[in-house]
Amino acid sequence: MTWVLVLVLATGTIALKVVGPTLAGGVEPPQALTRVIALLTPALLTGLVVTSTFSSGHDLVIDARAAGVGLGLVLLLIRVPLVVALIAASVVVAVVRMLT
Amino acid sequence: MSSSKARAVRASATLALPTAALGVTFGVLAAPVLGAGPVIVMSAVVWSGAAQFGALTVLTGGGGVALAAGTALLANARFLPMGFAFAPSLSGSPLRRALAGMLVVDASFALAHRGEGRFDAEVVVWSAPLQYAGWVLGTVVGALGASTLADPGSWGLDVLFPVFYLGLLVPELRTAGRQLVVAATAAVVALALVPVTPEGVPVLAAAATALLGLKDAA
Q1: Which of A33-42, A91-100, B36-45, B151-160 is least confident?
Q2: In terms of CB atoms within 10 Å, which end of chain B has fewer, N or C?
Q3: Where are the alpha helices (DSSP H) in chain B?
Q4: Which of A17-21, B6-10, B35-39 is predicted least confidently?
Q5: With a CB-CB cutoff of 8 Å, which residues 66-105 of chain B face chain A?
Q6: Can you give the residue ranges of every domain in chain B?
């Protein structure tokens, strides 16, 4: 059964990824759809940021990650390079975890 | 080296270490449940943290294989609209387009966005090798060392993902438009759904707030 799971996950994930590019490649979408596509990136990224910061399984939590992400956001808003923001955030998280 | 390629390789190098750490975590947690062999093959052929952790969560919670597969694919359902978003920016034969589509992951998708719904396929392609290598090699280390390794989640590397995504998000939010409204809505929707829906649904619903774009800008 384990191999069945591996096979289903692999074929399913690849299918989800290739349907769009295969069927709709190079086609110019209508204007309303272009607006949706342009907004998909910020919408998706926001979903990834908040869930990977504030969730632990099915619980909403505020823990060390929130401190790191908060600092990261401030640094990025004042245009500090991403690599610096990443290092600062992980140091803060490691320190907070050590202290708590 | 073109600037797209250089940018893609640089950005994916930044993520290679946290991706590998996440791979180690997956290997450590999944090997006792599924066996080291299937775990390594899974990372090599599925290449999706969201789906694999989703399936593992169901299995360790006592759910069956069908429920695990369903949860995992739901966690990856966002790739369907992402594929249709990416498609207009792709040229070449259907096979070439399908191969480019297979290489899309969250980070490369966002990194490749050039604004106004256009994407740079070269960025997706050249982000792939380091991300893939990090994920698979990390899984190998975790799965084979499962009994001796500590969970690297305790190192503070897990915070690199939200901050990296923020690094891609902040420039998007600086553009004039509805991005800020959509992002705020997406944040509320995702957090509201975390306690009550299966893995993957909060992010999928957050992505769906892009449908606010159907309405003509005022």
Answers
A1: B151-160
A2: C
A3: 3-34, 36-46, 49-60, 65-75, 79-86, 94-102, 106-112, 121-144, 160-174, 179-193, 201-208
A4: B6-10
A5: 68-69, 72-73, 76-88, 90-92, 94, 97-98, 100-102, 104
A6: 3-149
